[in-house]
Amino acid sequence: MDEDIEKIWWTFPRFKIETMVTGLELPVNLAFIPEPTDNPDDPLLYVTELYGKVKVITNNWKVHIYADNLLNYEPNYEFPGTGESGLTGICVEPESGDIFVSMIYEDNEDVKNKLVRLKSKDGLKMDSMETILEDIPSIKAAHQMQAITIGFDGKLYVNIGEGMVNPEVAQDDSDLRGKVLRMNLDGSIPEDNPNPDSLVYAKGFRNPFGARWRKSDGSLYIADNGPAYDDRVAKVEAGKNYGWPESMRQNSLFWSNLSQGITSLDFMQNGEFPYEFEDELFVAFFGSAYETGHAIKGKKIVKMKLNKDGSAVNSFDVFVRYMGKHAASPCGLSFGPGGLYFTDLHGEKNGPKHAASGNIFRVSSIIKAEGEITVPYTIENTSRCLCPGCPTRNECMRNRNQVLFCSQGKTECEVERRGCLCGECPIQGEYGLTEFYYCDEGAAKK
Ligand code: SF4
Ligand code: SF4
Hints:
By secondary structure, the chain is mainly beta. Helices cover 7% and strands 36% of the residues. The chain folds into two domains: 2-365, TolB, C-terminal domain (Neuraminidase, 6 Propeller); 379-441, no CATH class. It is globular.
């Protein structure tokens, strides 16, 4: 399968993609345990499946059911539609290895959100479940309780959508919907919350699906989905109002005019990629549910370079793009051992919408072969590269934003040699390069 995978998932130059897990049923989010052991049979990561399972993947990449039947209703599989909710957010508590997950549940005629803590002696099978927070109204459609994270302050942060029906609740301080909540691990209110009598940490969100903490500024960043426009990324600060339902741009860092279905995000901050990618933000753009084929909206992962204080986006590049014909699309995303991992919610197969065809992929940096010259793939070098004006660079390369072939290696596009500008390029002299047609021959060598 991996031979084909490179053809259907385009990756940024000097990276490769591998299939790590297949056969999952609507895998939503994933969470690595902070310090995995060396034992092949011990847990490495957990994944939520939308319709009520948590699976654990061990160090030897075997998949086990950690918890099953966590929903107290039968999903109807309409996607998009009412089958779009269920079990979504997940995080691991580092001290105990317990797992927090978010879900909706039926309470007589009502649908509500809840947050639970799952406990296990060996990390492989749930032994007990404790409810941390419940009774918050929801519907079986979308905008439910989503991402859960544990902050650098040891508190639990919970993203919760506004429930779709009455978006104005996002501005109501007495309603927990449309908020980022902050709580102690047992669900109680920390004394230093913006309002010491309330779990509300920040308000004015619509459907804040993703969340992650950035080490370099100690802050929480979230992904929040707009109506048909203005999907956004925002840095969340105590007591701030993020504007919904009036605005999706208020206090936001980035927004997209086209609805891209932003789901999850993570920072490269533990050396998983080369240093030139340090502190870059990687964001999954899911797109439209169950849309097949290569799409303009979504179906990609982008990377953004933020400025130091997280008030502006300095660069934006497509990092992974789906090029196949099916429903595959990135949903959950997290850095883990050796690279960036993401869930592919629907999977590559066409078939029943609830078919167990979801995947987990890993994108990792390609180690250079001995003898290769390292031309760093930096913004500065890409801006100096003469490939964009070269007669050999064709539409296929342009569509993939490919330049700097002396660094990235050869293209997968067909090359018809019509001249090469490398001889006139400043990079050639600076790095002592002597070859031509790197787009056809591969990266520069000594
Ligand atoms: S490597 Fe040379 S031939 Fe290929 S696109 Fe760049 S300048 Fe043109
Ligand atoms: S040597 Fe060629 S591939 Fe490398 S930066 Fe210059 S024009 Fe681009």
